[in-house]
Design brief:
It is built from 12 helices and 6 strands. It is of the alpha/beta class. The relative contact order is 0.09.
Length: 288
């Protein structure tokens, strides 16, 4: 009788164990297949990028987010947003809403950061990264605003803008940001300049497809600029202000400023350089 009870016990346990083993096997199989599919698709996209110089796709959002109603009017005042088609406008608004969710805005020296200020910076950020699939930068989650210039503890200098990757923060003088945003600063744009630093640093540290395109194209641009003739021509035309020649990071930041502020001038004088910048950001909206 005891043997019968033990035998029946094992008969009852066996289906349960088999079911558990089957479930575990399915999960492991799905996991392995998913990893294989991911790397195959990633490899295929890398091949695609080498030929097309852009990612498979830019926008894919299971749920499209919307901005709070009190922030939406600011979109209509933005020239870039107004130039987009209906679908692109939805994507722009979605990205703006996500950026605002993920980013902390801090005012310093008594400055109160309101919706207008947050949206002006957000829209510039979204415009600069609108051609990139990965637009939320891992090394930027805080925007610090000062009324005007501020003393930088990091650099021990008086600054109007600074990107600090260690703190994942971007510090800006609101006064100077607005001057550039309203095109009152002779082609300069503090926001474009400092955001480009953040994008550049992010591209060095990350390996997502947008970062790879930015960094690989930047290296190609560096090689192209190895020509003394090209460098002399850039200096002679004075298309870039002197600060661009501080180092390679400042060079690309100033270059992107020119690309965004005076695309036609850059394209006419240096079509190859224009193409490199357009490819780095996958920003083809001036061509539409």
């Amino acid at each position: 009788m005891d043997r019968l009870v033990v035998y029946m016990f094992f008969l009852e346990e066996e289906p349960s164990n088999s079911l558990l083993q089957t479930v575990i096997g399915v999960f492991i199989t799905v996991g392995i297949v998913s990893i294989c599919v991911y790397y195959v698709l990633r490899y295929l996209e890398t091949v695609y990028v080498k030929h097309k110089k852009k990612p498979y796709f830019i926008h894919f959002y299971p749920v499209i987010k919307k901005l709070p109603s009190y922030l939406k009017p600011f979109l209509k005042e933005n020239d870039f947003y107004s130039s987009l088609d209906k679908k692109q406008k939805k994507y722009f608004e979605h990205r703006s809403a996500r950026f605002l969710e993920e980013t902390r805005f801090v005012g310093r020296e008594g400055l109160v950061v309101d919706g207008f200020m947050r949206m002006q910076i957000t829209m510039m950020m979204i415009q600069l990264t609108f051609g990139m699939r990965n637009y939320l930068l891992d090394y930027l989650n805080t925007i610090i605003l000062y009324p005007s210039s501020f003393y930088s503890i990091l650099n021990k200098t008086e600054n109007i803008g600074e990107f600090n990757p260690r703190s994942r923060a971007l510090a800006l003088s609101w006064k100077h940001f607005q001057r550039g945003n309203l095109h009152q600063d002779k082609g300069k744009s503090l926001g474009v300049h400092e955001i480009t630093h953040a994008i550049h640093y992010n591209s060095i540290k990350n390996n997502d497809i947008s970062s790879e395109i930015f960094y690989d194209t930047f290296l190609q641009l560096e090689e192209y600029l190895g020509s003394q003739e090209i460098r002399n021509k850039i200096v002679e035309t004075k298309i870039l202000r002197d600060y661009a020649y501080t180092d390679k990071f400042e060079f690309i930041a100033v270059l992107v400023e020119v690309f965004m502020e005076s695309p036609n001038e850059l394209k006419n004088k240096f079509p190859e350089i224009y193409s490199y910048v357009m490819q780095m950001l996958n920003f083809r909206y001036f061509e539409e």
